[in-house]
Amino acid sequence: MMIQIKGRIPLTIYPTFWLFAALIGYWNSQSFVGTLVWIGIIFVSVLFHEFGHALTALTFKQNPRIELVALGGLTYHEGGGILPFWKQFLIVFNGPLFGFILVIVASLLLQIPSLAEGIIGVILSLTRVVNLFWTVVNLLPVMPLDGGQLMRIVFEKLFGAKGLRYAMIASLSIALLFSLFFFLMQQFLIGALFFLFAFQSYDLIRKTRHFSETDRSDDLREELAELEISLQTGQKQQAKALCEKILSRAKEGVIFETATQYLAFLKYEERDFKEVYKLLSSIKEELGAEAVCLLQKAAFEQKDFSLVRELAGTCFQTLPTVETALRNAYAHAQLKDVIPTLGWIQTARDEGLDNLKETLANPLFDPVRQDHSFQEFLHTL
């Protein structure tokens, strides 16, 4: 059951947090009581760490919230605009700092003889070890650990928008090295965890390869959010105006590509195929699946049959319809590719095309009509 605690810093605890804490506890103690002790230590340690992030964010007039999830905790903060780099750095850094404070507090309490013995002494010793270990590991320059976030902030300060990519590449390389090291040491669980971190870094590199300086603009982000709300509420003219406004300011980057695709869909509804073709062909390699199909339709209308052929397989995987198969067949026929033409005709037939003879009479098939293979196909009907 998910636990939600409201307040100045809202806290959400997911069931998976308790599950993973219990698994770690049992792994290390092999007993019921030991598992409960470990759950308590993990809960206090993670929460204290996340409060380091959250309280610092609150100091900078942000609105933080904390979530405790399977592999630890997450602190989110929202406020007006992007914070200066030094404030971002402190928010991230103070999580590990609070963890280290727990190490110091546990060490000082262990100096008191009455607290250093019995179950309290065990709890304090474990608290010190757990937080020292996690503080050191968490400061490794690997995303999504705090050390990786600190590296990202420093790189973005030094290199601008490219710094994000540099940080991801460094994170990927370091995570792979740690993963290999722990696998060789037969620490397979930790090795698998760092391999997961490496994969996450790779995925971020792929998703942010066109991240640009304009993507850091608060104004552009707000306009993109407003644009998406306009689309969701059916205010298409307002959405169109916002697309054009964004594209007048952003010439590259993720926001630019997103607004371009939105505008293309709006132009398609106006049957402005020429503009759709112009918009989408300029960012062909970055399109989502639906936008690829839209580009193929526009390319067909603009008689760019080579592009239609190039996108044929991808579009049919996304939209396996009679219309898509016939468009592919027409394009291949115009390019005098007889065998693929016949293949796509058969595909359209399999998808439910019922007026085949009438369809084959279409002049678009004229470039291959006299071909021996095409004629044989006609005779089989």
Low-pLDDT residue spans = none
Order of helices and strands: EEHHEEHHHHHHHHHHHHHHHHH
Q: Summarize the main sheet.
A: 4 strands, mixed
Shape: elongated
Describe this structure in words.
It contains 19 helices and four strands. It has 381 residues and is mainly α. The N and C termini lie far apart (63 Å).
Key descriptive features of the protein:
381 residues; mainly alpha; 19 helices; 4 strands; 5% strand
Topology of helices and strands:
Blueprint lengths: L2 E3 L5 E3 L1 H15 L2 H28 L3 E7 L2 E7 L6 H25 L8 H21 L7 H14 L2 H23 L3 H20 L10 H15 L3 H14 L4 H16 L3 H9 L7 H13 L3 H6 L1 H7 L3 H13 L3 H13 L5 H5 L5 H4 L2 H8 L2
Parallel strand pairs: 2-3
Antiparallel strand pairs: 1-2, 3-4
Helix pairs in contact: 1-2, 2-3, 2-4, 3-4, 3-5, 5-6, 6-7, 8-9, 9-10, 10-11, 11-12, 12-14, 15-16
